Amino acid sequence: MTTKEQIVQDWLPRYTGTPLEEFGQYILLTNFVNYVTMFAARFEVEVKGNGRAMQTATANNITIINFGMGSAMAATVMDLLSAIEPKAVLFLGKCGGLKKTLVGDLILPIAAIRGEGTSDDYMPTEIPALPSFRLQSTVSASIAKHEMDYWTGTVYTTNRRIWEHDEKFKEYLRDIRAMAIDMETATIFIVGFANSIPHGALLLVSDNPLVPEGVKTEESDKKVTAQYVKKHLDIGIDALTELAESGASVKHLRFE
């Protein structure tokens, strides 16, 4: 294999156990396999890729993919998805809430701060990490239909997983006025742009790591999953269903 096209066309099925022709044109991304199993149960479809790096399920022209955790895997899945040229990719991620956010709140980011480093391999650091406006607008409408509200603003994306003890870094997060922190969003936005893939994100606040009592634990994460994950997933499915049924283009930028 000598070209990127040849590599991703071979590797996307290899990573997921899913043939190229079985992927939907609309993609949900997640870091957690339970999102995939919940999607599969809702539509009574098979989960594929068990025992592989990524798991998938497909129904109604939508494929959900658990790609793992971190910016390196986020870049990998966005590169691999260039094999099928999806019409839209929506990331359903969990994040640490900053500022006044509460556990269970939704954040619809208008931009991401590139603190992870991975995206520097794809675009110069001066290029902002932005979502596709049309996709975020559709997600906003989907949230309203579910009679919920959301925060908007920037999310800081980092490669660093264990930082909650670092007071200097926490003060930096306060200084930059970010609404949330995660490990994938900026990478998905930049690598999506590099691959001409329309992309967006809807983040679920799973903890409030700036205060000691807000740091995520196994027990607190179970509560988040039990109380909020289904609604998070339903909003994402409904947003992509709306796009699929309307046939509207999500691209709002010229990719050159």
UniProtKB/TrEMBL annotation:
Superkingdom as given in the UniProt entry: Bacteria
Any Pfam family the entry gives: PNP_UDP_1
Cellular component aspect of the GO annotation: cytosol
EC number annotated for this UniProt entry: 3.2.2.4
UniProt keywords, alphabetically: Glycosidase, Hydrolase
An example molecular function term from Gene Ontology annotations: AMP nucleosidase activity
Family annotation (Gene3D superfamilies): Nucleoside phosphorylase domain
Domain Nucleoside phosphorylase: 43-235
Keyword DNA repair (UniProt): no
GO BP annotations listed: nucleoside metabolic process
NCBIfam families: AMN-like, PRK07115.1
Official protein name in the record: AMP nucleosidase
Organism of provenance: Rhabdobacter roseus
